């Protein structure tokens, strides 16, 4: 879970910033991508390096969608606002669709995002504690 896209609509930006700050340690060695305003807020307020794309309404969601299609994003954290309408709603839908098409985890709220952070920390600890983790994985997923 190295490359993470972070996006929040205006009504959810404070919540996303707060959530990223809570998990600052987790984000230390990740490659972060974001739509314009979200990314600038994260880098200004939390001093994390973020690759910023265009603002959402100007095509940022589509740029992140393109990265997903290129398999360069491992996890999409998208705190979209269910209580306000967006002029670029078709772009929002297209982004979430691509995340489903490419089978990457998508967190649209704090509860899910927390769950994924904890599960990924667990997996990392687990990988360290099991000497031959890949053999162990193969038992559960013969494709690996
Ligand atoms: O609109 C957005 C996502 O749909 C977010 O864009 P900004 O991060 O530029 O506000």
UniProtKB/TrEMBL annotation:
Catalytic activity entry: dihydroxyacetone phosphate = methylglyoxal + phosphate
Record GO terms (molecular function): methylglyoxal synthase activity
Positions that bind substrate: 9, 13, 35-38, 55-56, 88
EC number: 4.2.3.3
Domain MGS-like: residue ranges: 1-144
Signal peptide stretch: none
Superkingdom as given in the UniProt entry: Bacteria
Keyword Membrane (UniProt): no
Keywords from the UniProt entry: Lyase
InterPro entries registered for this protein in UniProt: Methylgl_synth, Methylglyoxal_synth_AS, MGS-like_dom, MGS-like_dom_sf
Transmembrane annotation, as ranges: none
Active site positions, chain numbering: 61 (proton donor/acceptor)
Similarity remark: Belongs to the methylglyoxal synthase family.
Function: Catalyzes the formation of methylglyoxal from dihydroxyacetone phosphate.
Protein name: Methylglyoxal synthase
Record organism: Rheinheimera tilapiae
């Amino acid at each position: 879970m190295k490359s993470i896209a972070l996006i929040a609509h205006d009504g959810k930006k404070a919540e996303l910033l707060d959530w990223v700050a809570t998990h600052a340690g987790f984000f230390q060695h990740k490659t972060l991508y974001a739509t314009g305003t979200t990314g600038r807020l994260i880098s200004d307020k939390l001093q994390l390096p973020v690759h910023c794309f265009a603002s959402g309404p100007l095509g940022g969601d589509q740029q992140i969608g393109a990265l997903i299609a290129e398999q360069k994003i491992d996890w999409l954290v998208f705190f979209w606002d269910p209580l306000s309408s967006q002029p670029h709603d078709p772009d929002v839908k297209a982004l979430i669709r691509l995340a489903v098409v490419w089978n990457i985890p998508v967190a649209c709220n704090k509860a899910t995002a927390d769950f994924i952070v904890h599960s990924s920390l667990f997996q990392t600890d687990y990988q360290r504690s099991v000497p031959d983790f890949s053999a162990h994985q193969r038992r559960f997923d013969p494709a690996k």
